Amino acid sequence: EAGVAQSPRYKIIEKRQSVAFWCNPISGHATLYWYQQILGQGPKLLIQFQNNGVVDDSQLPKDRFSAERLKGVDSTLKIQPAKLEDSAVYLCASSSPTGEVRTYEQYFGPGTRLTVT
Amino acid sequence: RKEVEQDPGPFNVPEGATVAFNCTYSNSASQSFFWYRQDCRKEPKLLMSVYSSGNEDGRFTAQLNRASQYISLLIRDSKLSDSATYLCVVNPGDYKLSFGAGTTVTVRA
Q: Which residues of chain B have a CB within 8 Å of the CB of A54?
């Protein structure tokens, strides 16, 4: 079974530039998550999709971050304009929860390491 | 107060040793609990779920204390390959997961 795919793996941009990340979840997984992981911290949820609808975007800095999952499959996360404090690893995860505890497992992609200079 | 708090470590132990560490969570309504493992510069992966009665998976034992709102992980007979960051993870509901900052374990030869 193919895992969660993300691209690019690395990105270096200057502050005030824009950047976009792409994620393709595991086939059939209805729930998709974007996390931000700053060095030394745990992943922080930015946005959660159920199919193509947003379930939770309460921690997404909406003045500069946007995300979409138009067809309920792959997703794009954008930052515009970037700030120095956006330097982090952006992780995409997917899951297919059915209510049983074991299905809460989230499968993570390799992440995109963003450096803002 | 953070939703999930962990001792960051690092725990530096020799091969064959036993190492244990805890995490605490703030939301008493949390429903499910997990330990994820994250290797350096890699993505997190599920290590094990934590059940109310406590559970083992090989050399790993997880315990949950709902009254005190803490979760523990014990690793017996440590291997070099156990070196990683262990993330305490809590499900507060709605299929979301809240991650702690992680506890770093280094097993030395």
A: none
CA distance B49 to B66: 15
Residues in chain B with CB shorter than 8 Å from the CB of A111 are: 43
Q: What residue type is assigned to position B67 of the chain?
A: A
* A84 φ, ψ (degrees, to nearest 5): -55, -40
How many Cα atoms within 13 Å fall on the side-chain side of residue B48? 18
Give the β-pairing of B60-65 and B19-25: unpaired
The per-residue pLDDT string of chain A (117 residues; one tens digit each, 9 = 90 and over) reads 689 999 999 999 999 999 999 999 999 898 999 999 999 999 999 999 998 899 999 999 999 999 999 888 999 999 999 999 999 999 999 998 665 655 678 999 999 999 999
